[in-house]
Amino acid sequence: MDAVAGRIVVLAGGLSHERDVSLRSGRRVAEALRDAGAEVDERDVDATLLPSLREDPPACVVPLLHGETGEDGALREVLELLGVPYVGAGPAASRAAFDKPVAKAVVARAGLNTPRSVALPHETFRELGAAAVMDAIIASLGLPLIVKPAKSGSALGCTVVRAPGDLPGAMVGAFAYGETTLVEQLVEGEEVAVPVVDTGDGPRALPVVSIRPDGGVYDYTARYTAGSTEFEVPAKLSDELAAECARVAVTAHEALGLRDLSRSDLMIDRDGTVWFLEVNVAPGLTETSTVPLSVQAAGLDLGELMDTLVRQAVVRSSGT
């Protein structure tokens, strides 16, 4: 199949805390698309971007901005204003998926398991007293907990809390990345990632990736330092459990109204129950990311897959 006609713009970088990861994802995808025969420009997000898109409209944009700048729907809203085709979820779905408490509520209504949690803004702790609020959290949710920013990615600001005295520092760490913090019951077991792709025949799950970080916690360092995490794909799961992980990921993708590509992060507890943790509308595509591993395990080529998603976005934008 010939590559899509016209220039593809890969957007990477931005000003979020995940800028470096985004740049790495952008380079990887741009190279893969070029290998598939596409004409590709790599662009950062700055004041020159919109004039450039207006004056020389590309065939399609591939947004690979991680964090709030790229995943909260705002950039996609602007691309729609310009009438520029782009790969990935629309603005409303991106907003819902990026807001972890909202995403958890949506998938829970769809019948998926997600850990009990509470999402509280910084003002609540300031107005009601941090000590009293934290006592109430522990009394209700128990221990261990995981504390994370409500709107962030790459495990930035995430801390596991096993003792009451660890909670204040974890809250401070999460608030450094956003005004609202999600405190969630920690599900212990096997962490897995499940990409979902839709190339025109409906969403389907790619092979499950098992994640075993050296330090026991899949944090930023474990995610993006080569050799810090052992990945196994396809994960060594029973057929029934692998099918359940796939079902959960596809259900989350559909319930949130996502399209083209997403990645769900799940936990399998010791009883074999699959828990939804979060979903990503612009998943990392670096050399240490799980999606490319799963794409390869499925017998697919990353460049050809992205080219197919670009073609799909162009057709979608044209209304044909």
Automatic annotation (TrEMBL):
Pfam families: Dala_Dala_lig_C. Its EC number is 6.3.2.4. Pathway: Cell wall biogenesis; peptidoglycan biosynthesis. Gene3D superfamilies: 3.40.50.20, ATP-grasp fold, A domain, ATP-grasp fold, B domain. GO terms for molecular function: D-alanine-D-alanine ligase activity. Belongs to the D-alanine--D-alanine ligase family. This is D-alanine--D-alanine ligase. It comes from Nocardioides jiangsuensis.
